[in-house]
Design brief:
By secondary structure, this protein is an alpha+beta fold. The protein has one domain: Aminopeptidase, CATH 3.40.630. Helix content is 27%, strand content 25%. The protein has a 5-stranded mixed β-sheet with strand order 1-2-3-4-5. The radius of gyration is 15 Å and the shape is globular.
Length: 145
């Protein structure tokens, strides 16, 4: 098994990150990762990492810090996450999570949140193994017409 290397995400990673996102969900709308990963577009509150195996990007995790929203102290949100479907179950997601948790701990952030679709049992299970549990929030949704 190849060794997993986790490093900060770069703008040049956009095509490989897009490939992984499309492989995970072919029906989801395309995400402009080039824009998201552009240093001029990102804010200092964002953190992003990729996992590499044999020099190839095989996973990504991007988070952001929120201060004072909804009565919470400063907290982090994992907003984008993906692992190449062919390589799931090899510790890539855990390696990414460990790195982003370490990053947030150094910045004295104690709470990390994420949102998962209720029927995505594989992702729910993954986050449960990392120690995530239900929060006191309920996501609400409205379609604007």
């Amino acid at each position: 098994m190849s060794q997993i290397k986790v490093r900060r995400i770069r703008k040049e990673d956009a095509p490989q990150v897009s490939r992984i996102a499309r492989a995970i969900d072919k029906t989801a709308p395309a995400i402009d990762f080039r824009r998201i990963l552009d240093p001029g577009f990102r804010t200092s509150s964002e953190a992003g990492f990729v996992a590499e195996m044999d020099g190839k990007v095989v996973g990504y995790m991007i988070g952001t810090v929120s201060s004072g929203s909804f009565g919470l102290d400063r907290c982090a949100w994992i907003v984008l996450f993906g692992v190449d479907p062919k390589l799931m179950g090899q510790g890539i997601g855990k390696a990414l999570a460990d790195k982003i948790f370490e990053y947030y701990k150094k910045r004295k952030i104690r709470n990390v949140l994420t949102t998962v679709k209720w029927d995505s049992t594989d992702i729910l299970s993954f986050f449960k193994t990392l120690g995530f549990d239900r929060s006191e929030f309920i996501n609400l949704h409205k379609v604007l017409k």
